[in-house]
Fold this protein.
Amino acid sequence: IISDDCSPNQDKIQEVVESFNNINIKLYLQKKNLREPRNKNFLVSKANGKFNINIGDDDLLHPKSLLIIKNFIDKNKDFDVYMFGYKVIDEYDNLIYSRKSPKKLIINNSNKFISKQVYLSDIFPFWMYHPAVFCCKKGIEMNFQYVDNVGIGEDFQLFYKLFNNSKKIIVIPDYIFYWRKIQNTINNKTQINQSLEDLSNFTA
């Protein structure tokens, strides 16, 4: 499911999607800019699968990522949320750095050490997983929606909601996706990351 959030490239995006000639691809062209949190909530409202994975236009799944996730879920069925390792690349696909958990890691608020690390936001999350891209069971994101009053920290806010409400969270110790982080904002006119803008602060 693709939701273009009223970008100036809607015609090009529609053309690319139609070129696949695949009825399983659903494209929605927003008439006004919803901004990221509400656009994510819109996507979730249209999903009807058993699991959701929400990725942005600066994310790219690794080859065989879905197979890795499926095999992991088959062996670890009793969890609500599956977090991922990731690699950060620049606009030319050069690797900047990579992060993943050294082993399968269960995150819950009954563990005092884990809780402290989560709230410090030091080792957790970015050394082990990225809070913006994850796989969760259907309905989770409908019950704990993204909010639009926390700057660009809606992914953190959602994770804290899940954590505080004792949802069962596990980290897959593997690289699942690339996060493309634009480095040259002066010469690049087509895309920038919100995290490089002035709004990159997390408003509690």
User: Anything to note?
Assistant: Confidence is low (pLDDT under 50) at residues 199-204. Helices lie at 10-20, 36-46, 65-75, 112-120, 140-143, 154-164.
